[in-house]
Model the fold of this input.
Amino acid sequence: MDCHCHILPREFVTNLEKFSRLDAYFGLLATTKGSRFVTGEDLLRDMAAYHVDRAVVFGFAFRDTGICRDINDYVAGICRENPGKLVGLGVLDPESPGALEEAERCLELGLSGFGELFPDGHGYSLDSYGFLKLAGIAKDAGVPLLIHVNEQVGHEYPGKGLQGPREAYRFCVRNPDVKVVFAHLGGGLPFFYYMPEVRALENVYYDTAAQPFLYVPGVYRGLKESGALSRVILGTDYPLLGWERYLRDLSKAGLSFDDIDGVISRHGEEVFGEFFETSREGNRKAGQNTVLGEGKGSTEILEQGGFE
Ligand SMILES: [Zn+2]
Done:
């Protein structure tokens, strides 16, 4: 199971220049050397070729909620057409006008969470108002957030921002009931699993997106040693990097078959498995839950999150 795949409607893929002008952060990603953009149909073809059974898919978050709406409609549509194979998340900038309404609409469409969210790219933090409201919506609906964070040391690259392990840890401590996946190995948060209070975090997972660009294969051995490997899930950042690249690094790390199976399958099932099952049955968990928006969870989170 690949838990981090970006897809876009064909109109976006064939008009990258136009959409790059409409969102500075998307423009930055689109003009970065080596970046690639594909449709969901492209992904399905590649999944079949590489025998990948399940993928969690989403577009790219734009600041403009109207553009996000078009992307979310497309993602929800292709997931509906491929039950049991694709599960979709909604993209948005939670601080933009109309974004929280869009979040609720995403759940009605059958999307199973929100992500990849770009706090730095869109200029908000993990304790800003709209983000905490979104976290409340996710909590009430029982769906996860997938959040871009990155390491605060090492080489620079486009999209490297200021939200890292410290912010991720603080969010988890304050919001233990929100299920989160921190992309890019949580910006290094799992390396702190030698600290008992970090290892005690609940409801948090880390995906491997862009690992081959950031860390040597031995990183997986380190994560096993620190006790965090059971929270690591395969996310390729498709189409940025292919599955074979991650499998190669996982096996180079000298992990056991069981450990590798955990990363490429079982741990991801813990987060997203239920949504693949419900999508196959055509009976979405998220759609059944109508406690959204101003629900108790949202208020609780805002109080816990604080604005100090
Ligand atoms: Zn990312």
